[in-house]
Amino acid sequence: MSARKRKLRLDDDDSMSSSNMASRTSNQKKTSKTIVRRYYTLIFLGFMIFGYVAIANDLKPFHLGGKAIDSVAFSLNFQKPFYVVIIDAGSTGSRVLAFSFHTSIINGNLVLDSELFHQEKPGLSSYADNPIEGMKSLQILVDKAKSVIPQSEWNYTPLFMKATAGLRLLPGHKANDILEVTRNFLKTSGFHLNDKSISIMEGVDEGIFSWFTVNFLLDRFNQHSSRSTVAALDLGGGSTQVTFAPDEENVKELNDNIYNISALNHNMSIYTHSYLGMGLMAARKGILVPESAAKNENGIIEIRSECINPFIKTTWNYGGQEYHIMGPVKGATKVFKNQNYASGEDKRPIVKFQDCLKLVENYTSTIKNKPIGLNKHEIYAFSYYFDRATEIGLIDPFQGGTITVEALHKAVLETCEYVNTEQPFTCLDLTFIYSLLKNTFGLEPKTKLNLYKKISGHELSWALGSAFNVLQSEL
Fold first, then answer.
1. Buried b (16+ CB within 10 A) or exposed e, 315-351
2. Which residues pair with 161 in a beta bridge?
3. Separation of alpha carbons 274 and 203, rounded Å
4. Pick from 123, 90, 88: which is nearest to 320 by CA?
5. Beta strands 332-337 and 345-350: pairing type?
6. Tell me, what DSSP letter sits at residue 157?
7. Which 3 state secondary structure label does DSSP give 1?
8. Range list of H helices, 147-171
């Protein structure tokens, strides 16, 4: 197997020191030498030695105890927190995540203490013709990060902004203009930047970082086997990523998309592929808007589609273009029994699922690289997968949950027979998601999907994985 080596380090080791960190650590040690602290230190060291020996010998019942010991050490100020700011410049919005970490006193690994999450819409790609206007939303994100990071730490705190599919889909000169304006703006933020801080993220990195985030928050890296890790499906606005650790029997078939990475001191072979244009918004446009579509005298494109209920007329703006979207002139109807009257019937306009599915499959059939073997793995799906499932009541919007592909299919059929003027694209979006999972990704009807927005209070996104990667190069 000629797998490619991806230069991503998502683990922690002694190389993570720097002159700044060393200086701050030295000052920290000096301030900790008090009489009261010595008393507690002696008690704590006894617990620490016991816990270290237990964990070093892989006594699993003591892993939780190790976390408790580390928490005590942190509360006694044995470790000083340090911070990373990641700005996710996505296609539909920009998000800031400000992370606080400390280094475990037990094993030297990074421990995530807290994070701030805030989002502003629309995304930077919406300002392609006026990049300076987009800096207003970035100013809000920077201010939010500063609100949770001590001012004395701003100059030591790395800030990285990575743009995803929204900018990847723009013409090169427009994307570069946005990046240049953003770079100049963030240089005045007060945070620490370098030459690589502002860039368009590769789809490969987006997939691997998302996968790392999910498995880190699920504590799967402590089980010493790539088989214990889960697959991560991330559905954004402009692209979608599929990432998992494949079985040996599937590695050769997936060879072109296999990357060797190091994750928390585990060397692993990971499959990841980013499908540009298969994000929910990009796919919506690709399915609805034929290549022959032309603007009217007002610069608006009018579209009729079999994936839109005949009753619906709505306006949609994507990539700076306004669309008037309607259902077919002679749309389908269905007779329903009226719930309010014992013998009453009601004829309603519907979307014929099979007609919409054909349009969707015409679009998704362009996908050639399929994630063979994905259905063998435990799967966590997030972003728009989660959003659309909550909107139709399949899972709890606060708790998340688990569904099957079969349950999703049933829900899509019901949704397409309902006139939803507030969410006119729900039938189309869910039909696309169902087709993507079943026909493109090869999932079975009984395959389970774990749908979550957060795990242990932390957002599921590529940002946390990116923060770990930043620490390897910055600290």
1. ebebeeeebebbbbeebbeeeeeeeeeeeeeeeebbb
2. 87, 198
3. 5
4. 123
5. antiparallel
6. S
7. coil
8. 165-168
- Spatial CA neighbour of 94 closest among 138, 132, 147: 138
pTM: 0.85
Query: What are the residue numbers of the active site?
Result: 206
- Positive/negative CA dihedral, 63, 64, 65, 70: positive
Rg of the chain taking only CA atoms, in angstroms: 25
Task: Tell me how far apart the 2 most distant CA atoms of the chain are, in Å.
Answer: 85
> CA-to-CA distance for 395 and 404, rounded, in angstroms?
11
- Token pair 């949609």 in the structure block, residue: 316
Tokens of 279: 């994000």
CA–CA distance, 105 with 81 (Å, rounded to integer): 13
**Per-residue tens of pLDDT for the chain, all 475 residues:** 334 555 566 765 433 333 344 344 444 444 444 444 544 454 444 544 444 444 444 444 434 445 655 666 555 566 788 899 999 999 889 999 999 998 887 777 788 999 999 999 999 999 999 999 999 999 999 999 999 999 999 999 999 999 998 898 888 899 999 999 999 999 999 999 999 999 999 999 999 999 999 999 999 987 766 789 999 999 999 999 999 999 988 988 998 899 999 888 788 999 999 999 999 999 999 999 998 999 999 999 999 999 999 999 999 999 889 999 999 999 999 998 876 655 678 899 999 999 999 999 999 999 989 999 999 999 999 999 999 999 999 999 999 999 999 999 999 999 999 999 999 999 999 999 999 999 999 999 999 999 999 999 999 999 999 999 988 765 5
Phi, psi of 35 (to 5 degrees): -60, -45
DSSP 159: E
Residue 193 CA to residue 452 CA, distance in Å, equals 32
| DSSP labels, 107-150 | T--EEEEEEEEEEESS-GGGGTT-HHHHHHHHHHHHHHHHTTS-
CA distance 298 to 159: 42
Residue 92 class from Cβ within 10 Å (0-12 exposed, 13-18 middle, 19+ buried)?
buried
Query: DSSP state, 455?
Result: E
Q: Name the residue type at position 25.
A: T
Q: Is 44 in a helix, a strand, or coil?
A: helix
User: What span, in angstroms and rounded, lies between the C-alpha atoms of 52 and 58?
Assistant: 10
CA–CA separation, 460 and 382 (whole Å): 7
CA distances to 54, 83, 149 from 27, in Å: 31, 17, 19
Long-range CB pairs of 26-34 (<8 Å, 24+ gap) are 28/77, 28/79, 28/80, 31/77, 32/77, 32/78
The one-letter amino acid code at 165 reads A
**Between β-strands 266-276 and 454-455, what pairing exists: parallel, antiparallel or unpaired?**
unpaired
Short-list 386, 381, 445, 441, CA closest to 410:
445
